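Hi Y.,

Following your request, here is the sequence exactly as I used it, all 306 residues.
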Amino acid sequence: MEERIERFLAALGRDRGFSPNTVSAYRNDLTQFCHFLCEQHAVQSWAELSETILTNYVLYLRERGYANATVARKVAAVKSFCHYLVECGELRHDPAAELPSPKVDKFIPRAITPEQVEALLAQPARERTPEALRDKAMLETLYASGMRVSELTALDVDDLDLEAGQVRCGNKPERQRWVPLSPSAIAALDEYLQLGRPFLRQSPTEQALFLNHRGSRLTRQGFWLILKSYAEAAELGDITPHTLRHTFAAHALTRGRALREIQQVLGHVSISTTQVYQQVAEQVGRANGHALVSTVAACYDNNGSE
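Below is the corresponding structure, written out as tokens. Let me know if you'd prefer a different format.
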């Protein structure tokens, strides 16, 4: 049974272009599902799946106290896998076709205020070490571009065009895009390239932009720890790399940038994904004591479509 799961996961990455992180999440959810089938129902083949067993699995997840969003994700993984089993002939009909998913409240991302961003960016500026220059450049770049942390750590030196004031990001060729940088991000990157990176680099052939103390590419986990330490020093509480992505979008809206432009910068396929930042911007505006600059009307054509 595990072999069929691995074939499904391989298809997700190969045919549907899912990221390694997404495939890993599917693997965890389907492995848990497989263990449930073997331990609770003694299922020995996928052909034994039934609507009753799947309903019991949902009840099992609820009894274990999982949040609605987590249950919904796990159910979605099972639904996708069952559909795959039908497609490959393992099942005659889809037992998950009518399997209900719990209702999940719409998630509103968290953003921090401009004053909090300023406090965060001030932390690495307290020192002039190569690591501090790197950290300042990373934080400035993330806030100026709204890129994902995986895109940030994947940057190579050749992805920068400081003369044009932009950076190329995107882990997939079809998602690559040039994103404009703020003057402060350009200055921080230039200083890092001149006074920081040469002291961190150990191999003349290393192409990674942001390097760790061993001279190799900084990892997502490494950046997470760096951000956490600066957030604590700035007394911002628990923030994540994605918090800065949300903050970029919210602040860009309050400054009058169009939703369509923000969609392109963030690399969202659908503008509906970007629209949630209207509510985030309103929250930031209230916290910062000023009204949101409305830009929504300029983002749609006359019939209100994308």
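The chain is about 55% helix and 5% strand.

Thanks again,
Q.
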